[in-house]
Amino acid sequence: MRLPLLALLAHGPAHGYELKRDLEQLLGAAYPQPNIGQIYVTLGRLEKSGLIEGEEVEQSSRPNKKIYQLTDAGQEALQGWFEATSEEPRVRDEFFMKLVLAPHTGLADQIALINRQRRHYLNTMRDLSRTAAEDRDNRISQLLIEGAMLHLQADLDWLERCQEELERPE
User: Which residue from 52, 77, 132, 140 has the least number of CB within 10 angstroms?
Assistant: First the structure.
């Protein structure tokens, strides 16, 4: 949450509820909606670390609000984030560890594990398809859903490969 908030503040000063609204509008229903408490906790941490500055603004009919803006250090951190590549391929996969260790425990069948995981991925794809239909007008949300669906399809293909390998006679 830290770096996306910095990215929104690069556009201009804002308070927490504006940042929450901007994230929701930008990402649509496909992305888990941010919790306002999480946003304010994160803003507090960003301020303590010197990446943003907050200024109290008086309001006549409401409590004061705090407007945040990016500092030079925040700008540098954001620039570094954009320049860095994202996650490496998944080699520490929790499901794969379950699959490999199941025969050693006698507590789970490998094919049953694969089938359960496959059902989970198919249900997730169904839910994403519903979300895509509901959020049809948000191009960013559609891209996010498409990426998730492609990853799920790759995971389903990989599960099929695992099952073929496990059912093959040695």
Answer: 140
What distance in Å separates the CA atoms of residue 65 and residue 153, rounded to the nearest whole number?
45
Q: Are 8 and 23 in contact (CB under 8 A)?
A: yes
Strand duo 65-70 + 52-57: pairing = antiparallel
- In the structure encoding, which two tokens stand for residue 133, read together? 């239909």
User: 55 pairs with which residues across the strands?
Assistant: 67
Angle formed at CA 34 by CA 33 and CA 37, multiple of 5 degrees: 145
Over residues 65-77, the pLDDT tens digits come to 899 999 999 999 9
**Residue 70: Cβ-neighbour burial (10 angstroms; 0-12, 13-18, 19+):** buried
Chain centroid, CA 128 distance in Å: 14
- pTM, entire model: 0.73
The length of the chain, given as a count of residues: 170
Distance CA 44, CA 49 (A): 9
Amino acid at 82: F
Q: Tell me, what amino acid is at 109?
A: D
